[in-house]
Amino acid sequence: MCAPFNLDSKRATTDVVVELSRSQVPPTLPFELRDYVSPNTWEVRVSTLARLVSQYCRPTFERACLVVIMVLTFLVPITTYYVTLQSLESATNDIDIDRQVWFARFISFAVTIATWIVLTAPVVVWKYLGKIRVKRLADQWTRSDALSAPSYGAAAAWKANAPGLFRDVIVLTITVPLTKKSHFDRDSYLPPYIAAGEDALPPYGDSNMTHWSKDLKGGIKYGELPIYTDELTVA
């Protein structure tokens, strides 16, 4: 889809936002980008981006990791609390039970924080690396288009957002200069309340205009063109 244009001091631009998914067929080249990207380049770039994101986007694996983290976060601190409390009771003869209980609680809390860090750090680093690689790929496309663009023209600026947790949707944003396109162009996007147009009538030059004929109502036709005549009444 096409976002509203932005105005700056130099050039008016518009953002073309495309949502990609690993489980869906890559979309065709948007109409707004046909002056900046060829269909072959668009297909190659979209496929490359989808393959890269697939390495860092596994919703099923991420949900499984969340379940494991929740279970271990619940079991490990409880086990640590009772093990620590029993160790304190057997190792010391201190009769202050409250002190031992609070110390065991502190150890249990520290183990909870450590468990969260140990289990979530690999997932966070994994997703962060994917985000960096996706950003570098989009910046590479922007530099490539800037080098290949003519001196009098403007190039498209690419920006890609990697999917977050439990999602596989890639948001690809391409910023291009604002151009005035007619809504009557055959490839332009039209509002949904406008129905598809019917086939246009053939031009006059393509009409069969080789003979005179009459229609069912008695009118005169020359080829496919009706001829209208006025009857004159002479007094």
Summarize this, please?
The protein has helices spanning about 40-55, 60-90, 95-150; strands at about 15-20, 155-160, 170-175, 210-215, 220, 225. The chain is α+β, with helices and mostly antiparallel strands.
Protein described:
With 235 residues, this protein is α+β, with helices and mostly antiparallel strands. 43% of the residues lie in helices and 14% in strands. Strands 1-3-2 form a three-stranded antiparallel β-sheet. Helix 1 (39-54) packs antiparallel against helix 3 and helix 2 packs antiparallel against helix 3. The longest helix is centred in the middle third of the chain and has 52 residues, at 97-148. Residues 1-10 and 206-216 have low confidence and may be disordered.
Q: Portion of residues in helices?
A: 40-55%
Give the helices and strands as they follow along the chain. EHHHEEEEE
Low-confidence stretches: 1-10, 206-216
| Biggest β-sheet: strands ordered side by side in the sheet | 1-3-2
Number of helices: 3
Radius of gyration: 35 Å
Gross morphology: elongated
How much strand content do the residues show? 5-15%
Number of DSSP strands? 6
N- and C-termini, Cα separation = 69 Å
Mean pLDDT: 76
Q: Keywords, please?
A:
235 residues, alpha+beta, 3-stranded antiparallel sheet, elongated
Topology (SSEs and partners):
Elements: E1 13-21, H1 39-54, H2 59-91, H3 97-148, E2 157-161, E3 169-177, E4 212-214, E5 220-222, E6 225-227
Antiparallel strand pairs: 1-3, 2-3, 4-5, 5-6
